[in-house]
Write a structure and sequence with these properties.
By secondary structure, the chain is mainly α. The chain is built from 5 helices and 3 strands. The chain has 2 domains: about 1-30; about 30-130, Ybab, Chain: A (2-Layer Sandwich). Strands 1-2-3 form a 3-stranded antiparallel β-sheet. The longest helix is centred in the N-terminal third of the chain and has 28 residues, at about 5-30.
């Protein structure tokens, strides 16, 4: 295979990866999850990044709640919706990195050193051969 053919193939691969990334971005942007609290006091919808899209009070039950009770219902319902949206993201979009879910990538909820350690795990003999000094 000539250098020109190799470059053309690399450009095709790049275009495919870019199209896949754009499609994943679009799909992630469309993902939402809704959760409703017990007794239907509150209903919330969140987007793929956990951003609140809507808060509704489907019944008048919230009027009979103490402020702390209503706040707790809101927080727990939001957390439930966020957990559901993370699950939907993980099901809809494959992670580009092994061992890290797509939702963890979106939320920045992973340790980079677990994926790419500062010093690559290579044999000392190879390290000596290439002159790689540990930092």
């Amino acid at each position: 295979m000539s250098l020109g053919d190799q470059l053309e193939e690399l450009m095709k691969q790049y275009s495919r990866k870019r199209e896949e990334a754009e499609e994943n971005r679009r799909r992630i942007g469309e993902i939402e999850a809704t959760a409703t609290a017990v007794r239907q006091t509150v209903k919330v919808t969140v987007g793929a990044l956990g951003q609140l899209k809507s808060i509704e009070f489907p019944t008048g039950a919230y009027r009979r709640m103490a402020p702390k009770e209503l706040a707790d219902a809101l927080l727990s319902t939001i957390e439930e919706a966020k957990a559901e949206v993370s699950k939907k993201v993980d099901e809809a979009v494959p992670s580009p990195l092994p061992g890290v879910s797509s939702s963890a990538l979106l939320q920045g909820d992973f340790d980079m050193n677990d994926l790419l350690p500062e010093t690559p795990p290579i044999a000392d003999s190879v390290r000596d051969f290439i002159g790689w000094e540990q930092r």
